[in-house]
Amino acid sequence: MTHRLVVLTLFALSLFAGPGAPAQGLRISPGGPARADGVLQADYIVAVVNSEPITHGEVLRDSQRLMQQLAQQNRPLPDSQEVSRQVLESLINQKVQLQFAKESGIRVDDAAIDQAVQNIARQNQLDVAELERRVVAGGLSVGQFRAQLRDQLMLTRLREREVDSQVRVSDLDVDRYILEQQNSADPATHQINLAQILIAVPENATSEQTAALETKARNALARARAGEDFAALAQQFSNAPERANGGQLGLRSSDRYPPLFVDATRHLAVGGISDVLRSPAGFHILKVIEKTNPAMPSAMVTQTRARHILLHVNAQRSEAAARQQLTAFRKRIVSEQANFATLARDFSEDASATKGGDLGWASPGMFVPEFEAALEALAPGDLSEPVVSRFGVHLVQVMERRQVQRSERERREMVRAALREKKLEEMYLNWAQELRARAYVEMRAPPK
Fold first, then answer.
1. How does residue 108 score in pLDDT terms, banded at 50, 70 and 90?
2. Is 217 helix (H, G, I), strand (E, B) or coil?
3. CA dist., res. 194 & res. 234, Å (int)
4. Is the pLDDT of residue 60 over 70?
5. Is residue 68 part of a domain?
6. Of 201, 220, 253, 314, whose CB neighbour count within 10 A is largest?
7. CA distance 296 to 446
8. How far from each other are the two terminal CA atoms of the chain, in whole angstroms?
9. pLDDT, tens digit, for every residue of 252-286?
10. Do 151 and 15 sit in the same domain of this protein?
11. What pLDDT, on a 0 to 100 scale, did the predictor assign at position 388?
């Protein structure tokens, strides 16, 4: 399943998942005629797209969903008329694209919808029966929900064919982007973390006192450049409040540092130490702890080493049975009645079983989202509750974490992926606008 399809199917789930459901989303109000001041109003057509109507009821229904979703996320609610206008525009674009998809021969069979339903259920740790129960409780029939999924799958396949397959990112594109970011003069686009040693100079200090304090600063600088620990020197010499934190001022954009600090460290690499600087506050020594450009991939990445026990869900074992078995394993491991690696070798249905379930070191993005979310929630040594993924049910333990330097090739591939995503968005917007421009759209005023 592509990234776009995951997003679409999760959005579909948000249409019926209420507060407290595994995926926080939005509870559907049953569709039908709108009410105003308690009086039932007849539905009416607000737009016609190539002879297919869009009704006021459809716009009202989707507007309510959107407003409820924003409220659940504690986000400010926009003007209701603006929401209705945007929802109508979205419905028009969707109808135009669905019509084009059908005319182009794109079809989605029942097996693909069944698979999408199963994926949604697994990603939200539900079985299909519970998923369908929530759909109905939210105001949709199962048939309507499957029809929505069919439309979304059709739109995804259309976009993959018409847009995604056309996007290319060359090595020259990657080189140009990296060069632009490196040569950017905008301080707001760069972030730095500096540590400082401040030898404060009193406002009314004599020239002799000032000279003595400068000598003290230069002594601290010599020791720092000789390899002594900068944090320890900061605690010993610095008069700044952040001395207890090794003198670190924190990662922030360059424009939030004094120009004196930025100019003095502009050409220093990470780990570099400035000369003694003079300011009205006193004498400063700066060390570059970190330099980042938010528009560029970080040079460092946090890797996780984890192990798991995987039980497949099939005709012989239900998801509930797999959960129950792994819960029993968890209790035995926590009470030290069993060893994780031994249980993994004996019971796990994954290739890692022979290694005691050890998955090795993994960078972010290497596992499916539902498994990765479980990893992120665990500290080293922690043992998860049973975790449902598209592969089955897992018992997961994080063994350790580490910071490693990304290779140049890895950073280039991350830039390539970011540029591809940007091109995809731009090309999709242009394509959607062109498709809309070729369609016949008639807007209709509400009845008197």
1. very high
2. helix
3. 12
4. yes
5. yes
6. 220
7. 50
8. 48
9. 888 889 999 999 998 888 899 999 999 999 999 99
10. yes
11. 87
Over residues 20-29, mean pLDDT: 28
Identify the CA nearest to 102 among candidates 66, 146, 52: 52
Residue 24: its pLDDT value, please? 25
Q: What is the dihedral of CA 59, 60, 64, 70, to 10 degrees?
A: 40
Note whether 31 and 20 are within 8 A (CB). no
Q: What whole-number distance in Å separates Cα of residue 195 and Cα of residue 288?
A: 7
- Percentage of residues in the chain having pLDDT higher than 90: 56
What pTM did the predictor assign? Answer: 0.55
The tokens for 219 are: 């002594």
Q: Is residue 308 part of a domain?
A: yes
Examine residue 122 and state whether it is found in any structural domain, yes or no.
yes
CB-based burial label for 405 (10 Å; 0-12, 13-18, 19+): exposed
Q: Are residues 48 and 150 located together in one domain of the fold? A: yes
Could you tell me the strand order of the sheet in which 387-389 lies?
358-362, 300-311, 392-405, 387-389
CA distance 64 to 70: 10
What average pLDDT does the structure give for the chain?
85
- Both 30 and 154 in one domain: the answer is yes
Token pair in block for residue 401: 């974490």
**CATH code for position 211:** 3.10.50.40
432 within a domain of the structure (yes/no) = no
